[in-house]
Known about the structure:
This protein is α/β, with parallel strands linked by helices. It contains 12 helices and 12 strands. The protein has 2 domains: 7-281, Alpha-Beta Barrel (TIM Barrel), CATH 3.20.20.70; 299-360, Alpha-Beta Complex (Type Iii Antifreeze Protein Isoform Hplc 12). The strands form 3 sheets. The protein has an 8-stranded parallel β-sheet. It has a two-stranded antiparallel ribbon with strand order 3-4.
Amino acid sequence: MEKNPLFIIAELGTSHGGDIVKARELIACAAEAGADCIKCQIVFADEILHPKTGNVRLPGGIIPLYEVFKSLENNENFYKEMKNEAEKQGIHFLATPFGPKSAALLKKIEPKAIKIASPELNYTNLLKEIASWGLPIYLSSGVSTLGDIEEAISILNEVSGSKTELTLLHCVTSYPAPPEDYNLRVLPYLSGIFGIKTGISDHTLDPVLVPVLGYALGAAVIEKHFCISRNDPGLDDLIALEPDAFTKMCTALNQAAALDSGQIIMEMKKEFGPELVEKTLGNGIKTLPSSEKANYGRTNRSIHALRDIAEGEILEQEMIGILRTEKILRPGLHPRWENSILGRKARTSIPAGEGIRFEDI
Length: 361
């Protein structure tokens, strides 16, 4: 298999904690560790969760995620500074928007590419907006079925006239993710059926196993969480790579570039054992892995009531939101129905935060 040139993304997420000094330090360390690009998340809590979402389990424990996201909100100048610092360090800047407000902010700072996170792969109107920009898109595919991926790619291609440069990042949305769930043999399959480049967004703890095997199977992009220290308080710092480990990953990938795919897999079997490597390679059939099944339909977006909606009320735009459900609230309709339900009458009362279903209208 002919291997692609490799692009390595250090996912900083919100590890800066809203501190631009910490953000600059993260960017400089990521560049020194070998990253080609840093990625951040443009967070506005109301675009992601309802205040009634409750507590969510993350690597650092169970936290009130809506309130934490509120504390991480920043203005346009903050992200401009991050972009400027990345370019000063000679690497690329990438950011993830989560809704119309964050997308509008990102567009103002003139990015050269956009990243769509796994839970937003089904956010129909957000996909349409981003596709209209005509910029390269990195699309993560965690907690998604093959049909979900096909629908998202169809939307992006339809809006852009198939002119958007698209890279699909195979991902397991579990923190940390078991390497045995990564099923890396799906990479050439996904690349073949969609005719696009593929990569890996890796949430496993090891710096080498999944990135190098993914490269052997044709990954053109490797994304991995990055932190200064796993003892830092960032939301994902406990599953991120510290600088030395990130450098180890980059070194291993550079060494793999001198080998063909078969040689890489053979060397990895020597290092990690044949059983673990074969489990990590998987069977190449795209299914939801066991670590993601409970999240499907809840981590993804659906239509929710932003306020109490009384029986008989006509649904208007300001009443609904396209949100992640998480664990307490009930999921609603797929975001593809957002425009269709506006102007419809509520058949029953819908409590604030709950998903809006067909039987509710």
